[in-house]
Amino acid sequence: MPTLKAGRERSRGDARAHLAAVYAGKGRSPLLRITFFSLRHYWQASLAIGATIIASVLQLMIPRLLGHAVDQAQNVLSTAAEGAQQALLWSAVTLLLVSVARGLFTLVQNYYSESVGHHVGYELRLAFYDKVQKLSYSYHDRVHSGDLITLGLLDLDGVRMFFSTGFVRTILLTVLIGVGAYMLLTTDVVLGLLALSFVPFVAWRSSVAQLMLRATWVVLQERLSIMTRVMEENLGGIRVVRAFSGQLFELAKFDKASKAALELAHDRVLIRVKNTSMMTFSFFAAMGLVLWFGGNKVIAGDMSVGTLASFLTFMTILQMPVRQLGLMVNSFARASTCGNRLFAFLDLDIEIKDEPGAKPLKVTEGTLRFENVDFAYPSAPFRPVLSGVSFEGRKGQTIGIVGKPGSGKSTVAHLIPRFYDVTAGRSISERAILRRWRWPPDSDTPRSPTMVS
């Protein structure tokens, strides 16, 4: 048993450290907050970033090695020399080793990028659950559970994935596009410009498409939230629905919410298909131009076949990173939107607070007293529910609160365990104002007071 207790204490200590790290970035922009929070896992992040840079460099070496191998193969066919065959063999082995090494570093990049993301997700879920537990009853009275479910699933996942789909991908694309463009232009300026001619169009269309998809994704998220809310309300109140024969009405309401989400999902597919087709066409058009002008240079003897092959391989390698620019833009936009929503929730001020130095409440006499209590709900502060309520109850007594529906019977029951704070007057238990005391964590708090209308 001591081992379990020690393990539990260590776990709680880690949890407290994670919560402190989540709240430490309060006031920063969402993207900065997510980035610094992700970089807390420094060795996983360092391995992911280092592996990304090495894999990018190795990928850029492949076109040069392939072009060199093509030229050596042409020499073997023309001269049939034994030395040329040996050189071709070494080129093939080098190309194979570089490709394998690139695959291994890509594996390390993906593994540790996901590792950072899962660590971030775990810590954010801890903070989310902690905030849900600490928020007052009045907050949960105002907010639908379906909205909280959406926040804790979709928004948290958008923040979690930013490191791998946004931050690391930015480094990857910077190295591939920047260094790749430099290598093309230094080899042949005209062919380099032709090979890169598809880049601006693809980057533009990809960014526009992803921003459109991002905007529709936000709307889709809201529609899914509505659908989740309808489902949650029906599951929670299924007895009421069946008692009043409301099955057909509730099914129609859910069907309407489901169809709205499905139509928007179809629109997103159409946006993706149209823009992907245009980007693919521009890429093959640029490749046709490179083949035309490069082929003429090869025929004229101004360029080797291997150099032309390396140009075409460079284009193939650059195609995917350029198309991923839109995904990167989408990742930044999604992380910013989801981060705004998630951190706004995590940074909420707790309405029901204990005074500094509050002590655990110990019930001895069991005296409860209301002294001239006034109360209005936060959503309607100018509409008082209770006004000048005073009574006293002692241990063992049974108190009946009688009144018509809406007169404040449930409100009185909610004020006793401090689901809400009184607007005026005092709620006193054990000769002390309740906010100077806090319920001990292992106590049995009131849950189901009986109300009779």
Query: Can you identify the CATH class of the largest domain?
Result: Mainly Alpha
Count of structural domains: 2
Percent helix, as a range, is over 70%
Question: How do the SSEs run, as a string of H and E?
Answer: HHHHHHHHHHHHEEEHEEE
The end-to-end span amounts to 50 Å
Structural class category: alpha+beta
Topology:
Layout: H1 2-24, H2 30-38, H3 42-79, H4 82-134, H5 137-142, H6 145-160, H7 162-187, H8 189-195, H9 198-236, H10 238-243, H11 247-300, H12 305-346, E1 359-360, E2 368-375, E3 386-393, H13 409-415, E4 424-429, E5 432-433, E6 437-438
Parallel strand pairs: 1-6
Antiparallel strand pairs: 2-3, 2-4, 4-5
Helix pairs in contact: 1-4, 3-4, 3-7, 3-12, 4-6, 4-7, 6-9, 6-12, 7-8, 7-12, 9-11, 9-12, 11-12
How would you describe what is shown here?
With 453 residues, this protein is α+β, with helices and mostly antiparallel strands. It has 2 domains: 14-218 and 276-346, ABC transporter type 1, transmembrane domain (ABC transporter transmembrane region fold, Up-down Bundle), CATH 1.20.1560; 359-438, P-loop containing nucleotide triphosphate hydrolases (Rossmann fold). 72% of the residues lie in helices and 6% in strands. The chain has 13 helices and 6 strands. The strands form 2 sheets. A 4-stranded antiparallel sheet has the order 3-2-4-5, with helices on one face. A two-stranded parallel sheet has the order 1-6. Strand 4 and strand 5 (432-433) form a beta hairpin. The radius of gyration is 33 Å and the shape is elongated.
